[in-house]
Amino acid sequence: MQDPRQGVGPAYQRRYTVRVSGSPLTAAQLIERLGNDLNAASPVEVAVFDKTSGMSRNLGVGDEYVVHMPGPWNCPVRVVEHTPVSFRFATLRGHLEAGEIEFRASDVREGDLVFTIESWARSGDRMAELLYEKLGIAKEMQLHMWTHFCTRVAELSGGHMIGEVEVRTERAEASRPGPQRLATRAVTAAFTRTFALAARLRDRPLHPKGLVVEATLSLHGTSRYWGVPFLDDRTELRGQVRLSRAAGLPPALPDILGLALRWRQPEVGGEAEATAELLLATTGRTRLGRHLLRPATGWSPAFYGSLLAYRAGDRRVLLGAVTAGDGNVPAGIAPLARALEERPLLLDLVVATEFGPWERFGELRLQGPARSDDTEELRFDPARNPIQGLLPAGLLQQVRGPVYAAVQHVARRTREPRRERRRQPERTAR
């Protein structure tokens, strides 16, 4: 067998799901029918299942198949698990991938069926990784094959599909080799010491003063499917935003402007509601500029970017917010508070791959009155409050969580003695 440890590159968890209504079959009957003839659902112009080992026509544990594909793509697999409502293949040596794939069905409310194909795998060798990661050939073939398979399963069930085949891909980097792991630790330690020391001198090393306002997120998605609720859903969410100047320089001087956003994520896939946080700062918008912080002289017009990338399935993406409208708001705290008293500040929420075009997926509405966070202190830690479906990507994202936790711990310990000293009455001389 060829398990993920023998593969190359990042590991992927892929899920293809279709919901079927009006089928006379139960989940167990559907899996039995599929196991008797895999080619009834397979797109035979792309993939043909040929049983090479097994005592009967029916699918059983230990049976082996070769999936014949155009070109040098033959993919041997073995059945390693079989239940009344599922079966699972493991890849054998010579397969394009190293891992497992499961086919399962379930009976759900209102008499519907849900059929799912889920795989956990890495590329089998360097050539397979090239075809998948760089050229995208294997990726497109795989997407076509399994979406077609799900559609045919819906037809075999005797019912009809509800909506489209849902495709979700999550990527996890393979274990980093020793030198990279040591580099990550070294960078984390350096940032932690630097900012922890600064926290002893100033409660917030960066973004010391800010305003807090209520926020409304109106989401509508983009023209493409990302597999991330925040980017795909049509919904309205409530949250809070903290606006601040990074260095706390005098208002007349340019500064990095920060926009920290917090909201409650709705329940997704059975997961309970959870807090999500996103940190944005003024950056450029171009393919190069979006990776660089940019001092600004006004809250509006301005572009706020995430700077650090997230992974949405097998794509690295950046998030941003760009002010909408013609309002000109100078970069001081007081002018911002006055502007929010007069009218809301509107921003378009945008997403892009690291070097692709920006696409609008919603609107952020900031509504006054603004409140000073001297009395309403907000602390943000996006590592502890992630956005569902968006995984932090890159070295600095890995460093950010431990650094934030250390700085906030130091700040709490330093703040308490200061408060105690302020509470003590002054001694009077006799």
CATH architecture of the largest domain: Beta Barrel
Main structural class: alpha+beta
Radius of gyration: 27 Å
What is the terminal-to-terminal distance? 88 Å
What is the count of β-strands? 20
Helix content: 10-25%
| Beta strand % | 35-45%
Taking all residues together, what is the mean pLDDT? Answer: 80
SSE blueprint and pairings:
Elements: E1 8-21, H1 27-36, E2 48-53, E3 64-68, E4 75-83, E5 86-91, E6 97-107, E7 113-123, H2 126-134, H3 137-156, E8 160-172, H4 178-201, E9 210-219, H5 229-232, E10 235-245, E11 257-265, E12 274-282, E13 298-300, E14 303-305, E15 310-312, E16 315-323, E17 329-330, H6 333-342, E18 345-353, E19 359-372, E20 391-392, H7 395-423
Antiparallel strand pairs: 1-7, 1-8, 2-3, 3-4, 4-5, 5-6, 6-7, 9-10, 9-19, 10-11, 11-12, 12-14, 13-17, 14-16, 15-16, 15-20, 16-18, 18-19
Please tell me about this protein's structure.
The protein is α+β, with helices and mostly antiparallel strands and 430 residues long. It has 2 domains: 4-172, Alpha-D-Glucose-1,6-Bisphosphate, Chain A, domain 4 (2-Layer Sandwich); 206-389, Catalase core domain (Catalase HpII,  Chain A, domain 1). Helix content is 25%, strand content 37%. It is built from 7 helices and 20 strands. It has helices at 27-36, 126-134, 137-156, 178-201, 229-232, 333-342, 395-423, and strands at residues 8-21, 48-53, 64-68, 75-83, 86-91, 97-107, 113-123, 160-172, 210-219, 235-245, 257-265, 274-282, 298-300, 303-305, 310-312, 315-323, 329-330, 345-353, 359-372, 391-392. It has an 8-stranded antiparallel β-sheet. A hairpin with an 8-residue loop joins strand 11 and strand 12. The N and C termini lie far apart (88 Å).
